[in-house]
């Protein structure tokens, strides 16, 4: 009964390789996006907090524009628009570039907020013991700021994992599009969407709980 | 570096399309926010003060919606409901339903935090002057809660407006869909997407600025 054409278990087994390939694409795009976005976001956040004004202005402009438009528009723009700059990219990389650009602006804003939320006394004390600017940032401000970055950073990371589904619109076969392709073959609409939904839910919920646990641990370290 | 000749006439020729699309997106966002506010209030109360058998489903609803990609929910509702025998929703209604459920979960979190931040003294004082439980909520707790949560509601409206772009995936003629269509019909890549970008930016900031003024007017003075 179960191993018959038209039954979900059977169809799921038939589609296992394409679903796994889709899953891999979801994981790799998420990973690339989060790594690139966080690294550049940290730099941009520092610029927002400490940069000289022309740089700070440019960074602010970038962050505010990106945060003001929908991720899907960014993805489609990158997909159709990058070719005009003689940059020939596959949908995969157009998607990663767009997602990273989005991730950068969100991480940058979080980092700026965290840096500015470190009490002024910390910086003053560091100055008083004679630390130069870079050392103050490196040893005093950032360790405290990054702790505060953690919860919103995890939120952004989860947004990015969820955002990878938008790549299906430009034809990147990630988990959602792989599920849709399976659905197109066997019309098991509810079952396959439910499977994809459950997958996203379990992964994201697990990450969120992990982050909450980490946050509770970090709460012990107060000044 | 960029050897591209702009031709904006394409945009002017389709301008009313863009405006209609923008208004449709804005309308969907506002309706979803209103329905979502209602859902959010009920769920926040269920989670905060409801009986145990209600708390648990409320928790599952909020966590489920918040951890699943919106696009997946959109497809699920749009293709899944007919499968369950629920016909008669067109694509706009289907999308608004999805976005409302989505907004409901986020609003529930906002309201839960809002309710938790109101000092106990408010409820006690309301009780002391003889208000009934429903009156206490209606005349004392809720007005304060809405004032406290107004900034978060603003943020939610802006992000809901941006989320209406996902309706393009089920061919609702909103801004992203229109830009994509104009792009496909005319090959004016930069013009169509820059227009969509500008309209989204303008509207998102207009919403934010107007509601910030409202927030100032209703700010809680502590």
TrEMBL record, chain A:
- Membrane topology type, per the record? Multi-pass membrane protein
The main place the protein resides is membrane
Q: Name one GO molecular function term.
A: transmembrane transporter activity
Entry keyword set? Amino-acid transport, Cell membrane, Membrane, Transmembrane, Transmembrane helix, Transport
Superkingdom per UniProt: Bacteria
- Domain named ABC transmembrane type-1 is located at 23-211
User: Where is the chain membrane-spanning?
Assistant: 7-25, 31-53, 65-85, 91-108, 165-184, 190-214
Its GO biological process annotations read: amino acid transport
Where it sits in the cell: the answer is: Cell inner membrane; Cell membrane
Kindly give the SUPFAM superfamilies that the UniProt entry links to this protein.
MetI-like (SSF161098)
- Tell me which GO cellular component terms the UniProt record holds: ATP-binding cassette (ABC) transporter complex
Q: Which InterPro entries match?
A: AA_ABC_transptr_permease_3TM, ArtM/GltK/GlnP/TcyL/YhdX-like, MetI-like, MetI-like_sf
Q: Which family does it belong to?
A: Belongs to the binding-protein-dependent transport system permease family. HisMQ subfamily.
Please report the name of this protein according to its UniProt entry: Amino acid ABC transporter membrane protein 2, PAAT family
From TrEMBL, chain B:
Return the SUPFAM superfamilies for the record: MetI-like
A Gene Ontology CC term for this entry?
Answer: ATP-binding cassette (ABC) transporter complex
Gene Ontology molecular functions = transmembrane transporter activity
Q: Which domain of life is it from?
A: Bacteria
Question: Where is this chain's protein located in or outside the cell?
Answer: Cell inner membrane; Cell membrane
Gene3D superfamilies, alphabetically?
MetI-like
- Quick check: keyword Transmembrane in the entry? yes
Membrane topology, as annotated, equals: Multi-pass membrane protein
**What's this protein's name?**
Amino acid ABC transporter membrane protein 1, PAAT family
Name the source organism: Arboricoccus pini
